[in-house]
Amino acid sequence: METPIPLPRQRRCQAGMSLLEVMIAVLILAIGLLGVAALQATALKNSQGSLARSQAIMESYAILDSIRASIPVAAINDPTAKAAAIALYQMARTCAPPAAGATLPVNDQRRWIQTMQRTLGATSCGTIACNGTVCTVTVEWDESRATGGVQNFSISTVSQL
């Protein structure tokens, strides 16, 4: 029987990646993807807060436009009559829509509060304070869902009518 001829020993060459290297790469990739997901969630929260602020500003302009539209044509050039028409819209801070009334100001206020509560949440409140022909409209809502948001956030809009 012939003895086999021994093959010369060859140095082992690395032919690929080990399982440990693949696992480390996957771990680094997973951490990066979790960071992107957290960033996306934060951006979404801040976007929600920005949307609420935009809606609050639109609601304050909506009631100011309602006040402007309710001024009788005869009162436009009469400062006393104009101030009297505007004064009908005075409203202390309220979170509950006024009961339906027979007057345009009460119905406008009711619709305004209801719309705010639909768009900004059920805890939204509003105030209308007029001094002559200058009105300050304040809209309040819960901003706690946004990053660093506060529970009672408010925006005031001042306009001369």
Automatic annotation (TrEMBL):
The keyword Membrane applies. This is Type IV pilus modification protein PilV. It comes from the Bacteria. The chain crosses the membrane at residues 19-39. The keyword Transmembrane applies. Keywords: Membrane, Transmembrane, Transmembrane helix. It comes from Marilutibacter penaei. The lineage of its organism: Bacteria, Pseudomonadati, Pseudomonadota, Gammaproteobacteria, Lysobacterales. Pfam families: N_methyl.
